[in-house]
Design brief:
By secondary structure, the chain is of the alpha/beta class. Helix content is 47%, strand content 13%. The strands form 3 sheets. It has a 7-stranded parallel sheet. β8, α12 and β9 form a beta-alpha-beta unit. α2 runs antiparallel to α4, α13 runs parallel beside α14 and α14 runs parallel beside α15. The chain is globular and about 60 Å long. The structure holds coproporphyrinogen III. Coproporphyrinogen III binds next to β3. One of its GO terms (cellular component) is cytosol. Its EC number is 4.1.1.37. Homodimer. Belongs to the uroporphyrinogen decarboxylase family. Pathway: Porphyrin-containing compound metabolism; protoporphyrin-IX biosynthesis; coproporphyrinogen-III from 5-aminolevulinate: step 4/4.
């Protein structure tokens, strides 16, 4: 396997010294790039793109050809796992993801089986190994999955939700049913992420996009507890190097201490958190990833550069910061603004790494 040429993303996550602050963007392969839209049109629909390892590799590499990014992220989706559990994932134009067979009863949950990552999810593993080979050591490859709670929201609601009415009803009225579902999901995610590492992923990220919808105590019971189970079950070394694990709960700023206690290596921060405050609270335990508002990329370039400066100054001196957006890049962002953002992080961060 090719030696890593640029490892500053892995180094920052493990709090080893770096020359400049590493940067990547959540959803960096996506619809804001015309070349992505062209490849997606070639594939047909989104899931066909995910299932074609050559095209999935192509869209993973597209943003790296344009920008000086410090990491690549596997092109796939968090909903591949419930799809492999038999729920029938499809995308309705303009409506987001949907499931043909939602898992909203205890009987449906009892019937769910744990997918074999090399079989039902073999197409993802093929994409991971292809991307890792094609990267040829340029930058590390990030593997990922959804958190059990976030996956369960889609599975129980049957798709995206704003109110989470069905899953919250289950949480409070039939908690044992939901725990059974979350436990099966945690077991599935452990196998899935470990298989990604076996196939070449060098770092792992768990997206808990909807943990922030929970109450203070329900977050611990239904989301954090299962991310803890995953952290405990992961392969943490590969190719003689630590495989860092990043937990990201959107809207989880109040719970950073509890998240840091899981033994993960880093926490993702959305834009509601002051990164200086986050560093004071948990910076002795974990690295921090974030946290610019993705909508800032709509601002004129000088305003983007100013915001990058604020966030870098907020984190301050030394390693342990991976610059990123606080959530995925929006589809109407001008690719030139994304480029200016990435340049600004590298140019302005030298002064903090002497
Ligand atoms: C909640 C969630 C999903 N998927 C994901 C999350 C967690 C992160 C977050 O909170 O955003 C994770 C994800 N989805 C995608 C990636 C690819 C890697 C990357 O470049 O970051 C990653 C890491 C591709 C994608 N996943 C999806 C797209 C858009 C599909 C298209 O090309 O039309 C992409 C590029 C589809 C998807 N997938 C999902 C939704 C809600 C949608 C519809 C979004 C929309 O229509 O804007 C579920």
């Amino acid at each position: 396997m090719a030696e890593l040429k640029n490892d500053r993303y892995l180094r920052a996550l493990l709090k080893e010294p770096v020359d400049v602050t590493p940067v990547w963007m959540m959803r960096q392969a996506g619809r804001y790039l015309p070349e992505y839209k062209a490849t997606r049109a070639q594939a047909g629909d989104f899931m066909s793109l995910c299932k074609n390892h050559e095209l999935a590799c192509e869209v993973t590499l597209q943003p790296l050809r344009r920008y000086d990014l410090d990491a690549a992220i596997l092109f796939s989706d968090i909903l591949t796992v419930p799809d492999a559990m038999g729920l029938g994932l499809y995308f309705e134009a303009g409506e987001g993801p949907r499931f043909e067979r939602p898992t909203d009863t205890i009987d449906a949950i009892k019937k769910l089986s744990i997918p074999d990552p090399e079989d039902e999810l073999g197409y993802v593993m093929k994409a991971v190994s292809t991307i890792r080979r094609e990267l040829n050591g340029a930058v590390p490859l990030i593997g990922f999955s959804g958190s059990p709670w976030t996956l369960a929201t889609y599975m129980v609601e049957g798709g995206s939700s704003k109110t989470f009415e069905k899953i919250k009803k289950m949480a409070y009225a039939e908690p044992m049913a939901l725990h059974m579902l979350l436990d099966k999901l945690a077991d599935s995610v452990i196998l899935y992420l470990n298989a990604q590492v076996a196939n070449g992923a060098q770092s792992l990220m768990i997206f808990d996009s909807w943990g922030g919808a929970l109450s203070h105590s329900a977050y611990r019971e239904f989301s954090l507890r299962y991310m803890q189970k995953i952290v405990d079950g992961l392969t943490r070394f590969a190719d003689g190097r630590k495989v860092p694990v990043t937990l990201f709960t959107k809207g989880g700023g109040l719970w950073l201490e509890a998240m840091a206690e899981t033994g993960c290596d880093a926490l993702g921060l959305d834009w509601t958190v002051d990164i200086a405050d986050a560093r004071r609270r948990v910076g002795h335990r974990v690295a921090l990833q974030g946290n610019m508002d993705p909508s800032m990329l709509y601002a004129p370039i000088p305003r983007i550069e100013e915001e990058v400066g604020h966030i870098l100054a907020g984190y301050g001196e030394g390693t342990g910061h991976v610059f990123n957006l606080g959530h995925g890049i929006h589809q109407h962002v001008d690719p030139e603004h994304a480029g200016a953002f990435i340049k600004a992080v590298h140019a302005q961060s030298k002064q903090y790494h002497k």
